[in-house]
């Protein structure tokens, strides 16, 4: 019997979804109709050698809004080397369907676009005072955890899906801010999410982490289902080196959380230290530690949402306040192999996404 809130990984799951174990280019194409009853977005982040950080997200509508009408939206977040943050939000007319291909990643919103072309991704964002052109050249193959689908419900009818089109990529970019142009080089990441159910009914919170440490690329997640689905822990892991994925067996992942505080902005818990321990055969294991130093983004997911009078009353009564924190800090990777220990350190970036209001973590393995 299948458990509610599980990462689908059986033969019948692949068959049901029309996919194979080998990820395909079309999976990064549009996977929903962009209308009521779904959400979908394409996410890109970049870390450049001069300290500049960029996040670009193309949405079919307002974030996780399942019931809302289509509203193609771009969110562009720029963190400059001096720490200054600039955020841009551009939306097309409500009710208009996003212009996107189902064959590959090829999405257009307003004057901006993302496109998969000849094995590379081309990202172009433009508004009145910022223009950003970025080329992403993959270092690693496309990847997803098993089918990439977490299923919920008695008939497994509800799902949250995740496709990692570029776990790691070399970047070259040209950016113009208020007439000042600069050229950038660095490393980036791109993934793609979609779903058909209200995410707060499925998931309580998650930590999503990625880092390039020494010769290794790491993606690690700690996903906790909602109360309805028993606060089950669903870990995700990917460890790669030299263009090859070495480890992605989440069934062997152990997660530890330490130095827990109450976050000043969210008023919920925040774990300053996260540790993922991955066994990989009798003679090899990996330990990945994330040590939070500061936050570069903290927001309520209700910010900017158009809520009716009745919904605003309900939000206050239910004390609903979904929150998002993007943190930076030190990532330490320890590779234990045949009795030898190699340690690598690097700055990394990760997030805490929270859909409920519990001040303390509730987790059942």
Biggest sheet features: 13 strands, antiparallel
The CATH homologous superfamily of the largest domain corresponds to: AttH-like domain
Q: Which structural class fits the helix and strand makeup? A: mainly beta
Query: Could you tell me how far the N terminus lies from the C terminus, measured between alpha carbons in angstroms?
Result: 18 Å
- The number of helical elements comes to 2
What is the CATH first-level class name of the largest domain?
Mainly Beta
Mean pLDDT metric? 91
Q: Which CATH architecture of the largest domain is right?
A: Beta Barrel
Detail the poorly predicted runs: 305-315
Helix content estimate = under 10%
Highlighted features:
single chain, 2 domains, mainly beta, 365 residues, 2 helices, globular, 5% helix, AttH-like fold, nine-stranded antiparallel β-sheet, 13-stranded antiparallel β-sheet
Overall description:
- The chain is built from two helices and 22 strands.
- The protein is globular, with a radius of gyration of 20 Å.
- With 365 residues, the chain is mainly β.
- Helix content is 5%, strand content 56%.
- The chain folds into two domains: 1-18 and 32-197, AttH-like fold (Beta Barrel); 199-365, AttH-like fold (Beta Barrel).
- Residues 305-315 have low confidence and may be disordered.
């Amino acid at each position: 019997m299948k458990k509610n809130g599980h990462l689908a990984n059986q033969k019948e799951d692949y068959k049901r979804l029309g996919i194979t174990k080998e990820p395909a280019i079309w999976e990064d194409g549009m996977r929903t109709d962009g209308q009521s009853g779904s959400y979908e977005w394409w996410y890109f982040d970049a870390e450049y050698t001069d300290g500049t950080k960029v996040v670009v997200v193309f949405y079919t509508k307002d974030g996780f809004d399942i019931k809302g009408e289509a509203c193609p939206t771009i969110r562009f977040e720029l963190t400059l080397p001096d720490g200054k943050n600039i955020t841009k939000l551009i939306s097309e007319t409500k009710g208009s369907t996003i212009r996107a291909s189902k064959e590959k990643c090829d999405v257009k919103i307003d004057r901006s676009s993302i496109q998969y072309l000849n094995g590379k991704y081309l990202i172009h964002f433009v508004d009145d005072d910022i223009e950003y052109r970025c080329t992403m050249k993959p270092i690693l193959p496309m990847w997803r955890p098993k089918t990439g689908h977490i299923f919920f419900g008695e008939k497994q009818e509800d799902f949250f899906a995740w496709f990692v089109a570029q776990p790691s990529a070399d970047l070259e970019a040209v950016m113009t801010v208020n007439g000042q142009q600069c050229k950038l080089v660095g490393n980036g990441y791109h993934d793609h999410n979609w779903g058909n159910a209200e995410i707060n009914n499925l998931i309580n919170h998650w930590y999503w982490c990625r880092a390039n440490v020494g010769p290794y690329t790491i993606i690690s997640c700690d996903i906790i289902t909602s109360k309805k689905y028993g606060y089950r822990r669903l870990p995700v892991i990917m460890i790669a080196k030299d263009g090859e994925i070495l480890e992605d067996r989440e069934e062997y992942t152990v997660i530890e959380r330490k130095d827990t505080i109450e976050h000043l902005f969210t008023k919920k818990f925040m774990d300053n230290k996260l540790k993922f321990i991955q066994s990989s055969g009798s003679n090899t294991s990996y330990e990945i530690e994330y040590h939070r130093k500061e936050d570069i983004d903290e927001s309520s997911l209700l910010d900017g949402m158009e809520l009716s009078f009745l919904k605003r009353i309900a939000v206050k009564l239910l004390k609903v306040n979904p929150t998002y924190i993007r943190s930076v800090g030190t990532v330490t990777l320890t590779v234990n192999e045949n009795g030898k220990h190699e340690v690598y350190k690097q700055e990394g970036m990760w997030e805490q996404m929270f859909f409920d209001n519990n001040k303390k973590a509730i987790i059942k393995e």
